Amino acid sequence: MEISVTKVILAAVTTTGENVSGLPVFYAKNQEEQEWIAKTLSRVLEAIAHDLGNGTYILVRH
Amino acid sequence: MALNLELTAIVGGVAVGTLARYLMLRRDFRQYPSYPHAAVNHLALGFVAAMMGAVAVPAIIAKEYTAVTFLALAATQFREVRRMEREMLQALDGSILVARGKDYIEGISRTFEARNYLVILISLVTSGAMLIYGHVAGLIAGAATLAAAKTLMRGKLVRDIARVRPAAFSFKGPNVFVEEIHIMNLGLAEVREVYSQRARAVILEPLDDTAREILANAGQRQAIAHDAAALLGVHREVDTAEFTPLLRRDPDTGRVGMLIVPIEPDVKCLVTAVENVPVLESAAVNPLASRAGRCAAD
Lengths: 62, 298
Prior knowledge:
The complex is a heterodimer.
Chain A: E1 9-14, E2 25-27, H1 31-45, E3 48-51, E4 56-60
Parallel strand pairs in A: 1-2
Antiparallel strand pairs in A: 1-4, 3-4
Chain B: H1 2-24, H2 36-61, H3 70-93, H4 102-133, H5 135-152, H6 158-161, E1 162-167, E2 169-172, E3 175-178, E4 181-185, H7 189-198, E5 200-206, H8 209-216, H9 218-232, E6 246-249, E7 256-260, H10 267-275, H11 291-297
Antiparallel strand pairs in B: 1-5, 2-3, 3-4, 5-7, 6-7
Helix pairs in contact in B: 1-2, 1-4, 1-5, 2-3, 2-4, 3-4, 4-5, 9-10
């Protein structure tokens, strides 16, 4: 039986480095790099990248 | 002579019952259970059901009352059919890009079980009428029961409970809305670009309070997403969860907005696809049948 984790923040990608801790955090130099990292992680984790609007993207599998 | 009459009644009942099961196997776009082996499974089970129904009346006439208890066995047998269908469809659900969802699967399995009981009823009526009123009357009674069963078992479709119309969608930052209904937050600009160019949106407006509650059921909405994706194709791969079609509800009005990135962009076809989704039995409620519900609807 396959068990998958859903509705949990799997990782965060941030450009500011502020307001995020307690989970795998990826720091990006700029927004372009942030997009790229978030896209790669979303494909690998089969998760969706959500924009929190404060410079941080979170990856959640639904 | 008496034996011949009984035998023809039983054979007639079995034949009409099995034919009824064949006519009730629906081979539409769902392609289920039209793959040949599944169809054979269900025809064979239909034959067994027809056999059980056809012998019931001759058994009673022959005062073999215990034979009728075999009908009780049928219930166990066909509950097994439901379990088998449910388990298989649930196991396969993970392989589909847009899952059917538990409610849709339960509805399908329940239908498979129920159709076997209908076959029992049809062959029972056929063989009984053949014994008592003659062959022609038996065939007519069987055909009438089949027609009645088909009419009564025809469930509602989404088009019976809601008005489906094309709608506009827009982005506010990373959030995408169908009219004013929030659908989801899309972080990646690349994904938003694909949505802007290829997505199609529809709105489902419930016709009354009962319809509103049916559309509130998440399983019903998943069934709509599945059927729409199955008919128009969906622009997604296993690792692009962003492109899963979503239906979200406006809690104020009960309207439901749907956003999908189809392969076929014709929005008219999308509306038709959504309109023809069956209303699931597990989603069906009828608040308007109660005094409190009618009072609240004013």
